[in-house]
Amino acid sequence: MTDSKTKQPVSLSARIKEEAQRLGFALVGISQVKMAPHEESFAEWLRKGLGGELGYLKRTEELRRDPTRLVPWAVSVVSVGLNYYAPMPRPAAQDGAKGWISRYAWGDDYHDVVKERLESVLGKVREIYPGAVEGKVFVDSGPVLEREIAGVAGIGWIGKNTQLISPRRGSWFFLGELFLSIELAYDRPIRDRCGKCDLCLKACPTAAFVGPYILDARRCISYLTIELKGAIPQHLRPLMGNHIFGCDICQEVCPYNVKAKPTVEGAFYPREGLYAPSLIPLLSLSQEEFGRRFRGSPILRAKRRGFLRNVAVALGNLKSPEAIPALIQALQDDDPLVRRHVAWALGQIATAEALNALRKRLPAETDAEVREEIEAALKQIAEKVLSADSHPIALDQRTS
Questions:
Q1: Cα–Cα dist 400/398, whole Å
Q2: Roughly what angle, to the nearest 10 degrees, separates helices 352-361 and 336-349?
Q3: Which of 137, 164, 180 is the last residue of a domain?
Q4: Structural element, H or E, at residue 170
Q5: Which carries the bigger pLDDT value, residue 387 or residue 374?
Q6: Which of 119, 153, 320, 387 qualifies as a FRET site for 112, CA 20 to 30 Å off?
Q7: Which of 15-29, 46-60, 245-259, 298-312 is predicted with the least confidence, judged by mean pLDDT?
């Protein structure tokens, strides 16, 4: 005869999964709260400095490695994945320099969407469980190694590109966790299925992967355009292409994403102007306009200064002469970080108009780092010509 105490976690787990799926979570797995399986690797990654300036990871290292210290009352954790894959829209008719924004930021901020639904799952658990239930929801906002926990719960495996990959559904998912104070039936991890494939490692334009499963965040385009608060290293700027917020390349090339199914969540489809946006108008956004345009969007995380920095780098890489007037105007921006990268972009485009603007700005520039960028840009222009049939640009002695 089956023990009712043994049967209860199984039936409760099934009802939790059913509720999560009803709310739109395509992936659901349940695991026991315990030390992360690769917590030593995470610690070594931090010790090597591969996390760059992500100081919050170091400050919360112990909590991330051992969730029992974060939620000591928790027994089980429900891991969920919400599909955000939106197909590329039909290209807009207008011409001009275009930027790339990562798919996950095309629509509304996922934190609110996922958290609200996980809170609903918690409410359902409290409704059907006979006793008191303590619960806590995390959505990429707390000291939790989400991919590690989801991997233990059998949602997928952590691939060579460090993304969690489902064998049937790929990797275009937002992850979330619901920690619970009750015992449940637990799922089993699935094996790593990357095999000999290394398409993601080879496709990274900045060579951010030290090796399989090891990302050097300091070279990652997502880190450079979102997490990095200061200047982007000059040697990495030309490798970033037209990316202005995040990067999807290592996911785009993954064979498990070839047959990705579009999300049914309308909130994750592109807002107007967030798919391949025209770059030049973005360069003139004021602080108020930036906040209004991207209200409720993950792009706010980069802040205006970081976002305009990224736009300037993209325009420099595209070498679009039509961007020169906007760049010259942005050379007067109140923020030195923006001016630094605008100066670099003008040096990349290297026209006589760019040269004159940089020469004019240099005597008036009071920020030492911006002055260095201007001088470097002038030297860059010194190596180029205006066109195939023109004479080299003459520079003053200061930059020769």
A1: 6
A2: 150
A3: 180
A4: none
A5: 374
A6: 153
A7: 46-60
Long-range interactions of 203-206: CB distance < 8 A, separation 24+: 203/249, 203/250, 203/252, 203/253, 204/249, 204/250, 205/239, 205/240, 205/241, 205/249, 206/236, 206/239, 206/240
Q: Is the pLDDT score of 205 beyond 70?
A: yes
| pLDDT band with cut points at 50, 70 and 90 for residue 141 | confident
Q: How confident is the model at residue 8 (pLDDT cuts 50, 70, 90)?
A: confident
Q: Quick check: 245 and 226 in contact, CB under 8 A?
A: yes
Domain that holds residue 378: 279-400
- pLDDT above 90: residue 185: yes
390 pLDDT above the threshold of 70: no
Residue 390 lies in a domain: yes
The mean pLDDT value of the chain amounts to 92
Among candidate residues 66, 108, 109, 140, the one labeled active-site is 140
Picking from 140, 130, 168, the residue whose alpha carbon sits closest to that of residue 79 is 140
Contact by Cβ (8 Å): 185, 30: yes
- CATH code for position 301: 1.25.10.10
Boundary residue ending a domain (156, 180, 204) = 180
The two three-digit tokens of residue 160, written as one number: 């060579």
Name the nearest CA neighbour of 331 among 287, 352, 362, 289.
Answer: 362
**Are the CB atoms for 145 and 36 separated by under 8 Å?**
yes
The average pLDDT across 183-192 equals 96
217, 223 contact by CB (below 8 A): yes
| Residue 140 bears catalytic tag | yes
